[in-house]
Write a structure and sequence with these properties.
Helix content: 25-40%
Radius of gyration: 16 Å
Number of helices: 6
Strand order of the largest sheet: 1-2-3-4-5-6-8-7
Order of helices and strands: HEEHHEEEHEHEEH
Number of strands: 8
Amino acid sequence: MSPLYLNESIPLMPDLTGNRIFLREYTSSDLDMVHQWMSDSEVMKFLSWGPTKTRDETFIQLADFMRHRFEEDRQGYYWPIVLKSSHQVVGHVDLRWISKKYGGGDGNVGYFMNRSYWGKGYMTEAVKLVIDFGFSKLGMHKISASCIKGNIASEKIMIKCGMTKEAEYREGGIRFDKWVNRLVYAILDSEWKFGKS
């Protein structure tokens, strides 16, 4: 049995709670739900690593999400997106440190969702919670996100979360074994504070 299963009694950080969703730490019991979207080629089509083929492959990815909570100097936060109404796990969002500097640092948000729940605003709500956490609790100075050009839904989420387009990297990602352009959006802590005032 994985050590991650044996050590799940380690204290967890508080849940992040929105109007319709909450974010919590991953547990091993999330495997089946995570496998639903990680094995779905439609959900994973814009990610360079693509869908998992077996539950064992998904378990390896889930274990990687979970291991960060054991880090002494935590570098990444990985959450399942859970509906308040049903406690159904419907997606994933993460926040990773890019760099830590005096006066703050840079973070990066990533996300994907079970396609049965696309277009309902859950992901925008989740990303806003994570941005708020990054600025208010971690003291980040800037938070970015990126997507492959053509991933219109992902780009809309960044815009709805107050992010500004900063760059388009030519052939900055791979999709279906071909180089494709990657878009980068970001928000500063000052912009976030202004939006909350």
